[in-house]
Design brief:
Radius of gyration: 26 Å
Oligomer: single chain
Number of strands: 5
Largest sheet: 5 strands, mixed
Distance between the termini: 74 Å
Shape: globular
Helix content: 55-70%
């Protein structure tokens, strides 16, 4: 029996005084600034989550979520699984789908702070590493998009955090945890292969090469390979279309070595350059960073390798939180006393202000006219108030505009057809963005089935479409005339602030097919 005079520990644990003490301890802990920045990041992204509209790729992934499979031409299955989840819980609502990237970028901020803490960083270093991550332009952009890119960055940083812990504890068994993170990464995006290879080569260039005499790195590699297995099997069953996609993909067009270097400044935020340089110095100069030098080598290997294959600049972005963590630690030491002490409060303020100023460049914040007036000179985009000229936005923002207009224009063209043609009609588009928009947004207008030869849409096939009556948008009239005996324009798609390639597109009615749709389908295939 309980002693009635004994203190009630449950009551004590929940008294206001105890709760206040715990709250005070949390707010004054070294990690509190990191948590505050993560929360601010999440809230900031959710405040603009409903602006503009669906991005082209978001629509594509949402369609993929309704057609689940072990792999897709241009991405592994993770984003489609998440899309299926969002369809189940929120019916693909615009704001709801952006919860996932907002949570991912907030988690990335947390991991950046954890890396700084694991390296031995103080409250200042942890907060500065997290702040630099918040201010990275690439993460501002990808954190506002439902895509695999911000998840990819999160896996890279989690992998780097595991490596830091592995070295700190001198525990090669953590290669298994690294393999698990890499496996999740391979279910998300193939670019983590670059990171994994760079880490392994970095380890071989340092004393960590001894780890490969143990079973743990090999077990980690096996676990990582399991993450790639569904995609590999799907590719093998379909003739390895992903190889052809990457061969044609414009992602390997980074503008050469000079362009790659120059674009790094914009993707990371020019004001983060100081912390990046400090991070490199930490890993390669002095005894403090020597144990973790393999991460420094990983950055060098990635930079050189991605430059040589002419990759786009943002491919390198996920490695930067590992440099922010080490750079913040070094800056903490250098500004604690002496002539650089003035920079201790000044530099974080400058980085924070730069994040606020650059956020509209990456996130859906400003109206088109305001964006063109204040940021158009940075992106080379013009203004298009009437929908006739160039978009006010660069592609990564502009591809959120115009899809509802396109859907309405196709609906008008479809409704204008005679009843017998409407009964047989299908819609054919040039690219997956058009097809996905019409597939999802066209449900309310009861549009007919949508098909396309672009990427995964080709593998999804023609369905019940007979090919007898086609409404086409995107292909030229001359191209369509090779397959149909009658091709006439029945509409025109004009859209304000959409991308130029989607503006002023004729809508054609195609009838009298020259060949059966099965025979024409192989020619429609294009992977890029």
């Amino acid at each position: 029996m309980r002693n009635p005079d004994a203190p009630n520990t449950l009551t004590q644990a929940t008294t206001p005084a105890t709760l206040a003490q715990r709250a005070r301890a949390a707010l004054t802990s070294d990690f509190a600034p990191v948590v505050a920045l993560a929360i601010a990041t999440f809230v900031g992204h959710m405040l603009v989550a409903g602006n503009y509209g669906y991005f082209r790729d978001e629509l594509y992934y949402l369609v993929a979520g309704q057609r689940l499979g072990p792999g897709y031409v241009d991405f592994p299955m993770m984003i489609a699984l998440l899309a299926a989840l969002m369809n189940l819980v929120a019916h693909d609502a615009l704001i709801a789908i952006h919860v996932i990237p907002a949570l991912a970028v907030a988690a990335l901020v947390i991991v950046s702070g954890l890396m700084a803490r694991a390296l031995g960083g103080s409250r200042y270093a942890q907060g500065l590493a997290a702040l630099a991550t918040c201010a990275t332009v690439t993460f501002l952009a990808t954190g506002s998009l439902f895509s695999m890119d911000i998840l990819d960055a999160l896996w890279w940083s989690l992998g780097a955090y595991v490596i830091i812990l592995l070295v700190k504890r001198d525990d090669p068994r953590l290669w298994v945890a690294f393999g698990l993170v890499a496996g999740l990464g391979l279910l998300t995006k193939l670019t983590i292969l670059f990171f994994g290879l760079a880490v392994v080569l970095g380890a071989l260039l340092t004393s960590r090469r001894r780890d490969f005499l143990t079973p743990w790195p090999w077990l980690g590699a096996l676990i990582a390979a399991l993450g790639l297995l569904p995609y590999a099997l799907w590719n093998a069953a379909n003739g390895f279309p992903t190889v052809q996609f990457w061969h044609n993909y414009g992602g390997l067009s980074g503008g050469g070595p000079v362009g790659f270097l120059a674009n790094q400044l914009l993707t990371i935020n020019p004001f983060n350059l100081v912390i990046v340089i400090a991070g490199i110095v930490f890993y390669f100069r002095g005894r403090a960073g020597k144990p973790w030098r393999l991460l420094g080598w990983a950055y060098v290997i990635l930079y050189v390798g991605l430059t040589l294959i002419n990759a786009k600049s943002y491919f390198l972005s996920p490695i930067y939180p590992a440099l922010y963590a080490s750079g913040a630690l070094l800056l903490d030491w250098k500004t604690e006393a002496g002539r650089w002490r003035w920079a201790r409060p000044t530099y974080p303020v400058v980085v924070a202000l730069s994040a606020i100023l650059l956020a509209p460049l990456a996130m859906p914040i400003l109206p088109p006219a305001a964006f063109a007036a204040h940021y158009g000179w940075l992106t080379g985009a013009g203004n298009s108030a009437d929908g006739q000229g160039q978009s006010a936005f660069p592609q990564y923002l502009g591809d959120r505009f115009g899809w509802d207009t396109m859907t309405a224009n196709l609906a008008r063209a479809y409704d204008s057809l005679p009843a017998n043609q409407r009964a047989q009609a299908c819609i054919f588009t040039e690219n997956y963005g058009e097809a996905s928009a019409l597939t999802l947004l066209g449900k309310a207008d009861h549009l007919p089935p949508v098909i396309s030869g672009h990427n995964m849409y080709w593998y999804w096939g023609t369905g019940k479409c007979s090919g007898a009556v086609i409404l086409a948008i995107g292909p030229t009239q001359s191209d369509l005339a090779q397959t149909f005996g009658s091709v006439r324009q029945v509409g025109l798609n004009r859209c304000a602030d959409c991308q130029p390639e989607e503006n002023n597109l004729p809508i054609y009615l195609c009838t009298q097919p020259r060949v059966a749709i099965a025979g024409a389908w192989e020619r429609a295939r294009h992977l890029n």
